[in-house]
Amino acid sequence: MNPYFITLLCSLFGAILFYVCRIPVPFLLGPMITMLLLNQLTSLPLKWPKKIRNYCLMIIGYALGSAFTLPILKSMVHHIPSMLVTTLVLFAISLLFSWLLSKFGRVDYPTALTSSVPGGLTQIVALAEQLRGINITVVAFFHTIRVIMIVSLVPLIVHIPAIQQAVTNPTAFINPINDRFDVPLLIKIILYIVVCYVHFLLFKKWKVPAPTILGPIVGTIFISCFIGISAFSLPNWFMAICQLVIGTHIGLLLNPSDLPRKKVVIPLSILSCVTLIATAFLLSATWMPWIEKTSIATGFLSLAPGGVDQMGIIGHEIGADLSMITMYQVFRMLFVYFLVPPLITLAVRRYTASSLK
Q1: Contact, 102 vs 253, CB < 8 A?
Q2: Where do the H-state alpha helices sit in 105-129?
Q3: Measured between alpha carbons, how far is 317 from 190 in angstroms, rounded to an integer?
Q4: pLDDT at 108 over 70
Q5: ∠ CA 38-41-46 to the nearest 5 degrees?
Q6: pLDDT digit string, tens, across residues 213-251
Q7: Which of 66, 120, 231, 287 has a beta carbon 3.0–4.6 Å from 283's, enabling a disulfide?
């Protein structure tokens, strides 16, 4: 049997199993864990085409870029000081844990930094693959633990009765429709495919880190916000397929034997996530009500190190201020995806140069 077909069947089984068991992010984590276990425990011929993974990363880049709308960008201008302060606080904690991981876990600093930054699992692993010398297993492990803990703990915290009672000013989600031109859906789809692919090629040519993600993000923002042709929504099943493709790819990359000093690295990964969540909650109970006049629930969902989609869904469920949540989450996404890749690239170059001396 074709090894690609075997891999696909196993990935589908893992995704469906995780979905039925209601495990968080099933279409990403299911294939990832399944591939990891099969790779270690069986001799099945498992293969996965890298080109398909790249196309799915571009689609995810488009989806991230579509979260930026002109109303959000305009509103963000007035909140930049507060958003910058809270983002830098969370980022400083990440830098602290990257130092701890490097010192006590004996992990090289570029790997430690890539593992600790509060970015998305898919995006950070994609970036790590493009940088030489990064231990993919450590990076994927740290971010997998973070995803599981965030999607498990954050909903429990915001559903505490005392916090929910404080939600007094829910507002509607910022309207993403921003069309200046009446463009048929088919033409719009073709336009965005071309724009995302061209920006990917340009970013690759200019040697911008993570071009498969950042290229489509920039292209989508340019067309939707400044040209005025709004992005179209992608169906949930389509995004699930992209997550399955990427989860399978990451799972095949993982090798537990590459995880150094497990007794130190595993507790550090859990502690770093708990610290980030606790800091976000502390800021939501002190800084956010003072500066932004928000409820604790709205402030917490705005600062929690999760994705704008996941935090937005939870916020909608409890009646929080979705405009504020979207602005803060989008700002941190912008901060992480555009500042962190150059920072990690610089760290890799300096670490490599120092190791050669």
Answers
A1: no
A2: 109-116, 121-129
A3: 34
A4: yes
A5: 35
A6: 889 989 999 999 889 898 998 898 998 999 899 889 988
A7: 287
